[in-house]
Amino acid sequence: MNRLAVSQTTVSRHLTQLAQHIGPRPTGSPGNQQAGEYIRDQFTRLGWHVETQPFECLTWDNNGATLTQNGQYLPAQPNPYSLPFVGSFPFVVCGQVSDLESHTDLRGHILVLSGELAAEPYMPRNFPFFAIEEQLHVLRCLDDAQPDAIIAIHDKPLFCDADFHMPSVTITPETARTLLANPHTPVDLEIRSATIPSTGFNVIARSDSQSAPSVVICAHYDTWFDTPGAMDNATGVTALLGLAEVLDRSLPVEIVAFNGEDHYASPGQVAYLEQSSTNPDYVINIDGIGVAGRQNSVSFWGEDTALFATARTARSHFPNLVEVQPWPQGDHMIFVQRGVPAIALSSVFDDWLAKTHTPADTLDQVDPDQVIEVIAFVEHVLGR
Asked: Which domains does the chain show, CATH number per domain?
């Protein structure tokens, strides 16, 4: 099979358009709309049969927060989708589940979450694909206690959920030390934010084949708030566009640019499943590839001996690509849960994860040649 190379110039152009010219692309936002249109236009230009798959969603307008204690300003960030709030209240600190369970009525108070209650971000309570029961129990306790607002102590937002109907902010552990040094001094909190109804869409590119797609290749194009999303996931979308350029369009292939992996309700993924009547033979998901100074990674889900053997043989031609243990945080899981075997491509997880979902996820973190490597690997697998 004669393989066509995707140039570094083409890859850099797509990366620059998505992560620099467009930038943040939260689902339903103007940047998200612009990115979807760019992807649609590129698929169309390359001769694919393109469908946009619309859905309703919520987006969020954030104008910051002001937290003060006895006149001293304490930096605080609203949690995504937080309700607006203005008030002055005493605060109660809870660090363990038993502490929270003992406070059955917190009306007239602001609750400060610390310790094990703020150990890691909470999954959205109505996330459609999986849940963590311990976190759901904490959320039920919060519903019962009804604090007027919540201050969470963490390095990143603790909540990202429009179904969590409590005003909330997150402060860093350093800021928390100042707050907790005055446990009997009330705090003044203002959260300036609004949740806004919006729409979004997936972009689906289909080949010339009249057969049902035997393989779906996917990547999500939405981002977290306030991040240019170079690693997460302009690199994956760029790989999709590169594959659209080099793949044989007679193959029964569907390329899906999902919109919603970083959205609290995964609306694009839900819309796709609701409108998909058949399962593909397998799926290839690309999320977070091409991180400079890191190797690309591949992992396998489900049972497909022939496919996985082919992929492992193909990997021998790509020494920078290493096999890792399966990881569940990605769009391949919506197929895996339906019994579809999956190949998941990313980078080797390390400290670069600390930069995703933050303003530090910029183009200088990306090596275009490693994006090209993934494009070539997927083409090699499909040419089996």
From this structure: 8-48+207-382 (3.40.630.10), 60-195 (3.50.30.30)
